[in-house]
Amino acid sequence: MPAALLPKEEVIERLAIAFRDLGYEGTSLTKLSEATGLKKASLYYYFPGGKEEMAAVVVQQIETWFGENVFAALQGQGTPAARLKKMTAALDRFYNSGSRACILDVFGIGQAGALFSKQLAASVKAWEKTIAEVVMDAGIDKATARTRAEDALISIEGALVYTRVTGSPKGFKRTLASLPERLLAPAV
Fold first, then answer.
1. CA 125 → CA 30, 58, 93, distances in Å?
2. Is 3's pLDDT higher than 50?
3. CA 15 to CA 150: how far, in whole Å?
4. Residue 4, pLDDT above cutoff 60
5. Residue 82: CB partners within 8 Å, gap ≥ 6?
6. What angle do CA 113, 114, 117 make, to 5 degrees?
7. Model pTM?
8. How high does pLDDT run on average in the chain?
9. Angle 170-184/110-137 helices, nearest 10 degrees?
10. What is the DSSP letter of 69?
11. What is the pLDDT of residues 156-186, one digit of tens each?
12. What gap in Å lies between CA 38 and CA 35, rounded to an integer?
C-alpha cells in the first residue's frame, strides 16, 4: 500500500511508536515522517496542528485503548482477582512484555509535560481509583485500597523503566504476575 494511502489509524499507531521510543523532544517532524513513511506535507494533511496535534491524538488513542481494555477489565464481570488478572494481561499486551515505553514516562517531562501533564495526571488518578474500587470489592478498606492502588501503579511504571534500562522483561512480568495477590492480600 503506498504511504499516501495509509489509514489514519495506522499513521497514529506509527506515531505512537515513534513518540514512545524517542519522547516528545526527540521526535522531530523528520523522525515522524520516517516513522510513518509519509512526507511532511502528508503528515500536515492528517494533522494540520503539527507535532503537538500528533502527540495529542496519540495520547487520546492510548486513553481510548486503556478505556476499552484496562478499565473495561477492571469494571467488568468476575471476581476482583479475575478482573485484576485481565488488567495485567492487557498491560502485558500493551507494553509488549515491558519492551514498549510508557507515554507517562516520555510525556511527563519537558515540553510534553507542559502540554499533557494535567491530562495524564487525570488519567492516572482515574486508573488508580478504578483499581482501588476493585480492591474494595474484595473487602479491603478504602484507605488501604487507595494506597495499594497507588503502589501498584508505581510498581508498573517502575518495572517499565527498569525493563527499558536493562533490556530484560523479567521484572515487568513478575510485577504484573504479583499484582493481584499484592493488591488483594488481607489487610493487616
1. 34, 19, 22
2. no
3. 29
4. no
5. none
6. 50
7. 0.91
8. 93
9. 40
10. I
11. 999 999 998 999 999 999 999 999 999 999 9
12. 8
